[in-house]
Amino acid sequence: MNTVNQKKYKQVAIIISVVLPLAVATLFSIKIDGFDFSFLPSIYATINGITAVVLVSAYIAIKKKNKNLHKNLINVAVVLSVSFLLMYVIYHATSESTVFGDSNHNGALDTAESLELGSIKYLYYYILISHIILSIIITPFVCFTYLKGWLGDYEGHKKLTRITFPLWMYVAVTGVIIFLMISPYYN
C-alpha cells in the first residue's frame, strides 16, 4: 500500500480515536424519554464476555500461526466492541443511571445502604473508574493496532498488541464484572 493511503488511514484512526470518546461523553448529556431499553445491560455485558473469549481465541490463533483465523476473530472482536458501544449509549441515553448499592431503588445511596455495602463499594468504584478510563485509552490502541495489521506492518502490529491485548481484555472482563456487581440494583 502506498504512503498516501497509509497516511489517510492513519488520519482516520486518529479521528476515530478522538471523536468517539468525545461523542460518547456528549451523548451522556442527552436523555430521551419514552423508550424502555432496560434489557440492554445484560446483552452488552454478554457481548463484553464474548469479546474476551474472542480475543483469547485470536491470541491462540496467532500463536498457532493461523493468520486468517486471527484476522477474522479480531474483526469479530471489533464488531462486538462497536455493538457494545452502540447499546451502551442507547441505554444511557434512555435510562436513568443506576446507583450502586441503591437497594430501595430511589436513585440515591442513603447511609444504611452505604453501610450495608461496606468496603465492597470501594472495589466496585475502583473497577468502574479503571474500566472507564481504560475504555477511553484503548480506543486509539485498538485503532492503530488494527490498522498496522491491516496494512501489513506486522512488527508494528505485534509491538502495539503487547499493550492493546491486555488493556482490551481488562475492559472486556471488567465490563462483565461491573454488570454482575450492579445488576441487583437495576429497576
Features:
187 residues, mainly alpha, 78% helix
Overview of this protein structure:
By secondary structure, the chain is mainly α. It is 78% helix and 0% strand. Helix 1 packs antiparallel against helix 5 (120-151), helix 2 (40-63) packs antiparallel against helix 3 (67-94) and helix 5 (120-151) packs antiparallel against helix 6.
Along the chain, the helix and strand elements come as HHHHHH
Using DSSP, what is the number of strands? 0
Q: Report the portion of residues in β strands.
A: under 5%
Low-confidence stretches: none
Give the overall silhouette: elongated
Can you count the helices? 6
Cα(first) to Cα(last) distance is 52 Å
Q: Radius of gyration from the CA trace? A: 19 Å
Structural class: mainly alpha
- Averaged pLDDT, please? 91
Question: What share of the residues lie within helices?
Answer: over 70%
Largest sheet: none
Report a brief summary of the structure:
Helix content is 78%, strand content 0%.
Secondary-structure map with pairings?
Elements: H1 3-27, H2 40-63, H3 67-94, H4 111-117, H5 120-151, H6 154-182
Helix pairs in contact: 1-5, 2-3, 2-6, 5-6
